[in-house]
Design brief:
Blueprint: E1 3-4, H1 8-14, E2 21-22, H2 37-43, H3 46-56, E3 62-68, E4 71-78, E5 104-105, H4 111-123, H5 147-151, H6 176-186, H7 203-216, H8 220-232, E6 238-239, H9 240-243, E7 263-264, E8 292-293, E9 304-306, H10 308-320, H11 327-333, E10 349-350, E11 355-359, E12 363-372, E13 375-382, E14 387-393, H12 403-412
Parallel strand pairs: 1-4
Antiparallel strand pairs: 2-4, 3-4, 3-14, 5-9, 6-9, 7-8, 10-11, 11-12, 12-13, 13-14
Length: about 425
């Protein structure tokens, strides 16, 4: 259960100035935990955290949450599902408001779910991290590439975002199987020998999603719902293919691709047909809606839509309560695993579906960003004290950049002058 902290004095002051919904409006009777102001101030500087949230409200179009374990300290939603202007110049309408329940495209934050699914299959003995991927996809021209290489972005397989749209057939949305077929047909060369370089490439996780399907005998969406989302209590988390009402695996005939842009002119299904909560649309830096890209049909590297409270449930289920994987496997996922064949350590630390930073100020940080098609997000977990920080935004404007560091400074009692670290 997610518990919420109420700091009445702070909310009374901020309610006069904050744009958008405040966490005071979000509480339900079955999840509300009230503690005294004195007790809270002894533990956390809630007022300072709220001040950072207030500053963010001038620019953030989206949601933010700060918690320790399952106790929410600060939670806010600002702005619109579809922008009527750049923040803070917005025309707020009730049916267009972002709330704590709003679904956002997590973009690359989705990779940790794919990694968890792969590690589950490893833990069950169905696959091994050292298995060559050609054991499962014999026609791929990538001999020497293992499952671990895919997980750690050390495979040398090229980035599918760089392929021309003309390599795909006429299906409205490209799916993972079509991507594999394109790789097999065109035989794109590796950009480096496996294990000799770290290069963050989305193709790795798209292949892993199809690996999960092949080994489990279930569609990727079905497997992740059953073995990842449901055990974590993530009832409001879905895939792009579900919320837009398409089946990308069998092609679409009712929606034509714009031949110039590659965009697909479809809309999410009306609320209630698949999900009962609102869905945000992504916006580019000019505040215009980002149309769906035909590559949205590829899952594993992206494609999960969720809200901030489901992501908090995930943090607790995966990193703290070990409901998804045993501790030893979670430890592997959250430590450096991208060491190269020659023993070299890339500057960027990557585990399995997660980035890691060893901060001189804040200690070990486990995190991942998400940037895709008008969405800009950050998910961060600190193992030492179970702090969780979540920013989800449907507007490319960098509103959260540097804010996680400010909040960690507050937790750690570091003044602005002393701070030297900034996580983006």
């Amino acid at each position: 259960m997610i518990k919420h902290i109420v700091l009445l004095a702070v909310f009374v002051i901020l309610s006069l100035t904050l744009r958008g919904d405040t966490s005071a409006a979000f509480f339900s009777e079955d999840s509300l935990t009230q503690l005294s102001i004195d007790t809270l101030e002894d533990r956390y500087d809630i007022e300072a955290l709220e001040f950072v949230a207030h500053e963010m409200s001038q620019k953030l179009n989206g949601v933010m949450l700060v918690a320790v374990r399952d106790t929410v300290l600060v939670e806010h939603a600002y702005g619109e599902l579809c922008l009527t202007g750049k923040p803070p110049r917005r025309v707020m309408r009730d049916n267009n408001r972002i709330t704590r329940n709003t679904l956002f495209d997590l973009a690359s934050i989705s990779k940790q779910f794919t990694a968890a699914a792969v590690l589950q299959l490893c833990e069950q003995g169905k696959i091994n991290l050292s298995d060559p991927i050609t054991n499962y996809f014999p026609n791929l021209p990538y001999s020497g590439v293992t499952i671990k290489h895919l997980l750690t972005h050390t495979s040398g397989i090229p980035e599918y975002f760089d392929f021309k749209y003309t390599v795909y057939d006429s299906a409205a949305f490209v799916d993972n199987q079509l991507l594999i077929s394109v790789l097999e047909k065109n035989k794109y060369a590796k950009t480096f020998a496996p294990g000799t370089k770290f290069d963050y490439v989305n193709t790795n996780y798209a292949i892993l999603a199809l690996l999960v399907e092949q080994v489990s005998g279930m569609e990727f969406e079905e497997y992740v719902h059953k073995y990842i989302f449901e055990p974590a209590g993530m009832d409001n988390t879905f895939f792009f293919t579900e919320i837009v009402g398409i089946d990308a695996k069998h092609g679409q005939t009712y929606s034509n691709v714009d031949p110039k842009s590659g965009y697909v002119p479809v809309l999410p299904l009306p609320m209630g047909e698949v999900v009962d909560v609102p869905i945000a649309r992504g916006h580019r830096g000019d505040a215009k809606v980002a149309q769906y890209d035909r590559l949205d049909g590829i899952l594993g590297d992206k494609g999960v839509y969720s809200n901030m409270e489901d992501m908090l449930r995930w943090a607790n289920a995966y990193f703290i309560d070990y409901k998804i994987l045993p501790k030893e496997w979670v430890d592997l996922a959250t430590q450096r695993e991208n060491q190269l064949n020659n023993g070299a350590l890339p500057k960027r630390i990557y585990g399995y579906g997660l980035r890691i930073e060893e901060s001189p100020e804040h200690g070990k940080l486990v995190y991942h960003g998400g940037l895709w098609n008008g969405f800009q997000n950050l998910f961060l977990y600190r193992p030492s004290d179970n702090v969780v920080i979540i920013f989800l935004s449907n507007f490319y404007n960098g509103a959260h950049i540097g804010r996680s560091n400010e909040m960690l400074n507050i937790f750690d009692g570091i003044t602005e002058d002393e701070s030297i670290d900034e996580l983006e």
